[in-house]
From TrEMBL:
Organism in which the protein naturally occurs: Alkalimarinus alittae
InterPro entries the record matches: FA_desaturase_dom, Fatty_acid_desaturase
PANTHER family found in the cross-reference section: ACYL-COA DELTA-9-DESATURASE, DESB, FATTY ACID DESATURASE 2
Protein name listed in UniProt: Fatty acid desaturase
GO MF term (any one): oxidoreductase activity
Keyword annotations from UniProtKB, A to Z: Oxidoreductase
Amino acid sequence: MKTSTLNTLTHQEFENFGNEIEQLRQEVLADLGQRDADHIRSIIKKQRYSEIAGRTLIQFGLNPLSWAAGVGLLSVSKILENMEIGHNVMHGQYDWMNDPELNSQSYEWDTVCDSESWRNTHNFEHHTYTNILGKDRDYGYAVLRLTDDEPWKPRHLFQLVNYGVLSAFFQWGVGLHELEIDRIKSGEISWKDKIPFVKRFSKKAAKQVAKDYLFFPALAGPGAPKVIAGNLLANLNRNLWTSTIIFCGHFTGDAQTFSEEECKNETRGQWYYRQLLGSSNFTGGKWLHIMSGHLSYQIEHHMFPDIPSHRYPEMAIKVQQLCKKYDIPYNTGSFGRQYKSVLARIARYSLPPKKSAPLSVS
């Protein structure tokens, strides 16, 4: 996948496109109100009940079936908290409510990644420089080669395995992303520069580990091993699900990349256009969208990160109409097809360029 180009529309078309997208954004912002507050509070209630029921069944279940049900409910709770609640709250989607529990600057989510680090590496770096090679460090997470614009190295032969490991430990990979090991190795920064981050990360990670693997197991007394196992599986399920959703929104075969040079002096219309070309949606039912934090509408999320995510389905209809009007591709497909495309892309770029023949995802 070579880098794309942002010169397919005329200057006036880019300006018109940007104005129409911005008009849509302003219309939705002006309409925010009770139904949006009701949505997030309903999700929070479901998440909390799922956690209570899950932890109760894990701790007091009398047979393997009830324990498994507890693991499932706790997994759902952790996914809802990370995806539809934490991620979206920290984007400022509910700051307008003036609810201290839903404030983007003070919310702390149930993962080893501390919120300050997330707001820096994700909200700012990734959403500002989406898919710009050399600027967006979320592109491949410094682990995977996903374009011919990145030099091939022998370690890339194993990137399907590396992807599996990254997915299983996804919260840790995201939590340590700000450490910027690649920049430390290159000499751009030193370990000393990262001391403040390491302190924050260590404090947050210790709190998470203590909660799931010390506090709750201690409450179970002799039943501590089954609580540890249950919490471990719930965290694993959350990690695998989160990784899958994020990769389906960013790294399908048709998601494009961009060079720093072509994004200089980018207009607002070109910025919106870049979000479109560099993102992927997938289709599904209501609860698939909720469990994905509505990142099933990754295109709309990249264009409108501060709009409550449950609004994306209705906004997507208008975005697609504008794409048709300006002859802009809109990358969407079934969940299964998009994930298959992700795996094909990872496999394709694990090989040296001369052997990187396209893989079919039909």
